Amino acid sequence: MGCLQIRKYPDPILRKKAVEVGRMDREVRRLIDDMTETMYGAPGIGLAANQVGRPLRVLVIDLQKPENNDGLIVLVNPQLTESQGEIVYEEGCLSVPEYFAAVKRYGEITVRGFDRDMKPVEIRASGLLAVVLQHEMDHLDGKLFIDRLGPITRDIFKRKWKKKQKEGQA
Ligand code: NI
Questions:
Q1: Per residue in 23-32, pLDDT tens?
Q2: Is residue 27 flagged as an active site residue?
Q3: How many domains does the chain fold into?
Q4: 7 pLDDT more than 90
């Protein structure tokens, strides 16, 4: 196992649509383990495979609530099958560090996919879990949370980002 490098905006791999996992093998299991370690190490509550440079439809989530020490969710080839309502939540992303903004998403969702052993799983989620699932599934389609902002907020992000780049170069 090992921590992987997290790709940052504007790395083009974050814009790539990830491809489905056809067969679970040692390599994909290893990727899942490495992604899990990378997420915990960051620390973060979710990670999609494109964020570590592997455009496969794999994501890991752990909301890391202290009362739940077995909260790891591994999802392979996830699909949104039901959605309703809405929730607005202040989101951040390991690939867009130091930037947070309110994003509107479905409030209640059902997601189907496969676990680490390619057994079918169905997750019904609301609240933070629904937000994180949608955020990570967006990654698999090459989308970032900043794409879901309105034009003004998106403009603020771009200006902040450019300023940070300049400071980094100075
Ligand atoms: Ni993210």
A1: 999 999 999 9
A2: no
A3: 1
A4: yes
| pLDDT tens by residue, 115-125 | 999 999 999 99
DSSP E strands in 22-106: the ranges are 46-48, 58-61, 73-84, 87-93, 96-105
**Rg, C-alpha atoms of the chain:** 16
Considering 37, 67, 122, 136, which one is annotated as catalytic?
Answer: 136
Task: Tell me how far the alpha carbon of residue 18 lies from the centroid of ligand 1, in angstroms.
Answer: 14
- CATH number, domain with residue 47: 3.90.45.10
For the segment 36-66, what is each residue's pLDDT rounded down to a tens digit?
Answer: 999 999 999 999 999 999 999 999 999 986 6
Full residue range of the structural domain in which residue 159 is found: 12-166
Residue 89 CA, chain-centre distance (Å), reads 15
